[in-house]
Amino acid sequence: MSEGYLGIDIGSISTKGVVIDQNHQIVARSYLWTEGNPTEASRRVVRELEEQLAGSDIQIVGAGTTGSARRLVGAMLGASVVKNEITAHAVGTTYLHPDVRTILEIGGQDSKIICVENGIAVDYAMNTLCAAGTGSFLSSQAHRLGVEVEEFGAIALTSKRPANIAARCTVFAESDLVHKIQVGYAREDIIAGLCNAVASNYLNNVGKGKKIAAPVVFQGGVSKNEGVVHAFEELLDMEVAVDPDGHLMGAFGAALLAADAGPITNATSGPFAQGTFDFEEMLDFQFKTREIECGKCANHCEIICVYRDDDIIDSWGNRCEKGAVKTKA
What are phi and psi of 5, to 5 degrees? Predict the structure, then answer.
C-alpha cells in the first residue's frame, strides 16, 4: 500500500480536490462547480478522485480542508486538518515555488494577495465585498458579449487598442461596457479592456499598500485567463508565473498540511474508522446541519451543529465554553 492524502478546497463558486502521494505529487485532481451546495459538491469531487485512483495502490490515510465551507466539509470527511485559505495557499505555493515573494489569487467571488518572506506568509489582504475584479464578473460580462469566458484570454491577446473600462465597481463597469458596445468598439478591444480592468482593480484595491516583489505567482481560476495574466505583467512590469495546477493550490496546500499531520489513526467513526479512507462511507451517510441559539450567557451565540445520521459530530460558533456542544467521540 502507498499512502496518499486528500485535500479539498470548498469555495462559493467552485470546489477543488486533489490526492497527493508519499512524494507530495498530485496523482488525482478534480475541479467542479459548487452550485450552492458544498456538501454535494464535495461528494462529487470525491467520486471523481476515486475514479482516477481506481487500479492504483494508493490508500488515503489523511485529509485536510480549506475554503469557505472548510469546517462543514472537514466534519463530513473526518479531516485531521482544517485551515483557512491564506495558510493553505501559502503552503501549497511555497512548496512548488520556494522563492515566491508575492501570491496573487483571484477566485470566483473573492480575491486575495499574500506577501511571503523566506517561505513564510508575512502579510495578506482579502477582498470579498466587490465583485468587479473576480471570476464571476468576467463570466457575467462574457455572457453579455456572447462569448465563452474560457475564450476571453485568447481573444484579448489579439487586441491592438484595448478599451478603457471603468472597473472600480460592477455597476460602473457594466455601464461602461454597454456604452463601449453601443459606440462600436471592436469585441477584442472590449475584452482586452475588461482583462486590464480586472488587473487594475485588483492592484488598486486588494494590492493597495502592499509591496509586490518578484517572483510573483498568480493563481485561482482567473489565472487561466491569458489576458489577465498579460495585464498584470504590463501593470507590474515583471514576469508573472502561472502554475498549471494554480487553480488547485488551496486543495494542494490542504493535502500537504494533512501529510504533515500524518495518518489518522484514532477515528472511531466516519470515513477513516477503518484506518484508510472509505469512499462509500463518506458518500452514503445522511448529513445535515442545524442552527441553535445558546442562551447560557449574554452573547446568545448562533451555534452550527453538524450531524452525521443522528449523531452530532462537530459544532462551531460559540464564543465561550458555555456554548460548547458535546460531540460523539
Answer: -130, 135
Give per-residue pLDDT as tens, 72-122.
888 888 899 999 999 999 999 999 999 999 999 987 777 899 999 998 999
pLDDT tens profile 193-249? 888 888 888 898 888 899 999 999 999 888 888 999 999 999 999 999 998 898 899
H/E stretch holding 303 reads: strand 302-308
What secondary structure letter does DSSP report for 310? T
Is the Cβ–Cβ distance between 198 and 228 less than 8 Å? Answer: yes
Separation between Cα atoms, residue 190 and residue 155, nearest integer Å: 10
Do 101 and 214 form a contact (C-beta atoms < 8 A)? yes
Residue type (1 letter), 74: G
Burial of 97 (0-12, 13-18, 19+ CB in 10 A): middle
Q: Which long-range contacts (CB under 8 A, 24 or more apart) does 318-326 make?
A: 318/294, 322/294, 322/296, 322/297, 323/294, 323/296, 323/297, 323/299
**Residue entry with cell 477515528:** 267
Largest CA distance in the chain: 66
d(CA 67, CA 99): 25
The pTM (predicted TM-score) of the whole model is 0.83
Spatial distance between the Cα atoms of 169 and 190, rounded to a whole number of angstroms: 17
Q: Where are the alpha helices (DSSP H) in 150-210?
A: 152-156, 170-182, 187-205
Helix, strand and coil in the chain, % to nearest 5 = 40, 25, 35
